[in-house]
Design goal:
With about 650 residues, this protein is α+β, with helices and mostly antiparallel strands. It has helices at about 80-95, 110-115, 115-125, 130-135, 140-155, 215-225, 285-310, 330-335, 335-340, 360-375, 385-445, 450-465, 480-485, 495-500, 560-570, 575-585, 595-605, and strands spanning about 5, 20-25, 40, 45-55, 60-65, 70, 100-105, 160-165, 170-175, 185-190, 200-205, 210, 230, 240, 245-255, 260-270, 345-350, 380-385, 510, 525-535, 540-545. The longest helix is centred in the middle third of the chain and has 60 residues, at about 385-445. Bound molecules: adenosine-5'-diphosphate and magnesium ion (MG).
Length: about 650
Amino acid sequence: MKSRRASLSPAGSFAPSFANVLVRARPPLPSEASYGHCARTDGKKVVLTTETEAPGRGKRLKAVECQYDKVLGIQAGQEEVWGIAMPVVNKALDGYNVTIFTYGMTGSGKTYTMLGPALMDSAFEGQVTSSDLIAKDEHRGVVVRTMQYLFQQAPEAQIFLSYVQIYQERCYDLLQPPNVPSKPLKVREDPQKKPGQNVNVFVEDLSEVRVGNLEECLEYLMAGFGNVALRSTHYNEQSSRAHCILTLTLRQQLPDQRIRESKLRLVDLAGNERWVIHGPQISPQHARELATINKSLHILGSCLQTLSQPVTTNRRGQELVKHVPYRDSTLTQLLRDSLAGNSYTLMICTICCSILYQMQTLSTLRFADRVKRVKMRATICDTVDPAEQQQQIQAEVEYLRSAVSGAASGNVQELKQKVSELRKACLGLEGENRVLREQIAELEKQPVPMKSTMKKAAARVRRANSEPSLPTPDPWFDHEDLGDLQAIYYRSHDDLGSRMAGSCPKGHRLDSLGSIAHPLPAAANAAYFEWHCDRPGCRGSSRQLDLGRFHCSLCQHDLCQVCYDQLVGKSYSKVDVHAHRARRKPPANSPPSPVARARVEGVERRPEPERRQPRPAFRAAPAPARSAPAPPPGKSAPSRTPRGPEEPKGPEKPP
Ligand code: ADP
Ligand code: MG
């Protein structure tokens, strides 16, 4: 007899991206005591010895050595199993989905491992057991310990419980009261699945209860397990004939308003059962159960077989999508996510070491080996609670609305107030301006106004015009530009003669004029004129405060209508002024302007002896050329406006 060692999987260490596999050997029952062992556990290995018979070669012994993440022998207690399961349960607290399966032949100890003997007895034999006793039971199973651990580690988390059984490929809610006729529930896939996302599978109308403490949780567990379909089998007195899935949903509130929701599935699979041909007759119902259980477990194996295959790519290096027959059974459809999706999976494979069940044990070990190769893609399931998110958004919208409306109303009110203030100021200025104009007009009508009155009026005009009519400072009144823009009105002699003829009360010809001009351009339209009779011995004179026209101090021309309008209308700017200059710049060969001509002539005609010394005017302007009398020695000539046209600057100085 030869023995051969075969390895189902390469010896490897715990790989977090793959499903974890724990193999647990059940101690032999009294009925198996007289039979030998076929399996031996050794650290992480299971060595299974099988007897094969080849034609013509006789019987041969074959040893199969399998290596898993962890192997527990027959002496191992429930505490050691929990030692393996606890790190996986911890993942659920970290926000991952977690699934713990038990798989094995009927009677190999799956339910024992998951629930423990106390809970099993309460369901199978109808013993009344309190949740307190179950919680304190030394042999309590993984499910009870998990519940204890969750309430201990995350007391602030919300825990929801649902319990379902798949019996003959139909899904039933185990939390329904026993007197209520249970009806099968539909397993559905979330239609709003996006490409690249895992399919979300759920059971329609499945009741999910929130459990506040361990006692409550254990009560639901006991009640649910009491509803599981049981039957006496060839292997044990009472065996569950349905796959039981207990789901604990953990909802944890994170500090940054996110919700961490993870699902912890604890699955007690129904054991596969061999049809014993020479055994006692089984009922059709039992046969149906056996067939459906074996079928669903076979499909589970097929899914895992496909999933454990290495990834294949096409010639372009693209990953080929493999067909996994999840939909072939309700079990695989419901556990789709736990098999190869977003979950950390621990498979606890229970085996019997008796030689009676060596084929079943070999089958279980093969299954465990397949599971070990399945790659998992677990991710943290953090979401924002939709209701809370909606509330947050609504609060933000309200805040923004109030901010916008408050700001808008504040602005409008502020602006309205400003506008009304400005209107009032404008009205006040307009009124003052009107009054001043009227006063000026009256003064103009007076034939010989008093000098002081004239002074006052001129000062008043100056003051009024120096006050900006608009509250904002006029950018045009640049100090630098004052020299350029100072304007004074000069009438030509012809004009003067035609307009002022007969102004002298005695009917004599008027021959001199004086003028004042405000230094600011805005006031330059206020000019004071004084005419004197040029007849010797006649003291006839005429004075006039004129809001007249402009005269450019640089180009020596009257302002054109456009420029005048711009200046008077205050729609001017520097550009306008320079445009005016350019417009009025006399060409090199053009005749001099009337004023320039008059000045030149005045220079030539200055020594006219008989001219009367003109009365000094209020800031008298220079005497016009043709008729200006020469000042007598010792008497000063009438002064001109300091920056009047007498001191032309720049290139436009007339020849
Ligand atoms: P399964 O659920 O796989 O069909 P059970 O959990 O019902 O099997 O176990 C069958 C029998 O084996 C039960 O009577 C149980 O008490 C016993 N048993 C299973 N595992 C152990 C164990 N580790 N130690 C002691 N007894 C066990
Ligand atoms: Mg069982």
